[in-house]
Amino acid sequence: MSWDCPHQRGRDMMCALRRRICEPLSKGCILAGRFLTVSDKKEQTMNKQAASTTSSPSADVIRADGTVADLVLAHPALRPLLERLGIDYCCGGRKPFAQAVRDAGHDLKSVMDACQRTVQASASTPAATDWTRATVTALADHILATHHVFTRSQLERIDGLLVRVQRAHAAAHGAMLGEVREIFDALRAELESHLAKEEQILFPAIQAIDGYLAGRNARPDIHCGRVAYPIRQMEVEHDAAGAALARLRSLTGGYQAPADACATFQALYEALPALEDDLHEHIHLENNILFPRSIVQEERMA
Asked: Residue 222's pLDDT is what?
């Protein structure tokens, strides 16, 4: 018989085992599970396809098992949300995302849901430049032309605003403004020195390595020994700048201008967070993209 069943008897297809008309593959039949019908095969194929689809993470799925930097690199649109939540993605980008959420005092599921909504809402907006795909030289040029220029001009503007606000509001807010001045002056001195070191030492070195690997220039002589050394120092200074900005934000109550604030006072409290926001982007591009890629390129050159 075609079913190779020892219990089929006679032309009427009686099952000698169950003593009724043969029902191949039905429950109780010894052939059950040994063959797949056409419909069974189709269903099994569909199930495998569905399992494959669900097991492969979509680019839009928010995952909590990576670092904050991993999340922001995959979804740049999340940066404003993370800033509002107080989750550091630049200096603290290497921290596991779940831990960063807890450290900021938030519920992980709620934050992941908010991230998911943000990513979905940003899907219809034009994509920002993906700096992970740019060359090291192009990214360094962008940082110099955009963030270095803005930082210098913003530091000068804040200094002028702070002079005027201290003069006008010394009686009511002198002590607080004096602390702001002390932190700001130290931050400005460190940032201006930091920018100069990047422009004069680090960026020329990493761009020369990038140019060498791309065949644009001769093998460079790295005077600091290895670019990893100044990179580590830049990261330490990034942490110090982040800490200073956090103190300023705390001291000013999140830049909430007092009731008697004049227009200049309000302008100062808008300029300081603008500097902070730009530095977050600036440090993110360096710590999470430019510096790691530069170290890898130097290893390739060696």
From this structure: 86
How far apart (Å, rounded) are the C-alpha atoms in residues 102 and 66? 14
Residues contacting residue 162 through CB under 8 Å, at least 6 positions apart: 177, 180, 181, 184, 268
pLDDT digits (tens, 9 = 90+) for 253-282: 999 999 999 999 999 999 999 999 999 999
235 is written with which tokens? 């990261």
| Residue 300 · residue 240 · CB < 8 Å | no
Q: How many CB atoms lie within 10 A of CB 2?
A: 6
pLDDT at 43: 44
- Residue 300 identity (one-letter amino acid): R
Task: Specify the length of the chain in residues.
Answer: 302
Specify the pLDDT at position 148.
96
For the stretch 91-126, pLDDT in tens is 778 889 999 999 999 999 999 999 988 888 777 666
Coil, strand or helix: which one is 31? coil
Amino acid, res. 39 = S
Is residue 14 exposed (0-12), middle (13-18) or buried (19+ Cβ within 10 Å)? middle
| pLDDT over 90 percentage in the chain | 59
DSSP 8-state class, residue 113: H
Cα angle: 174, vertex 179, 180; to 5 degrees:
95
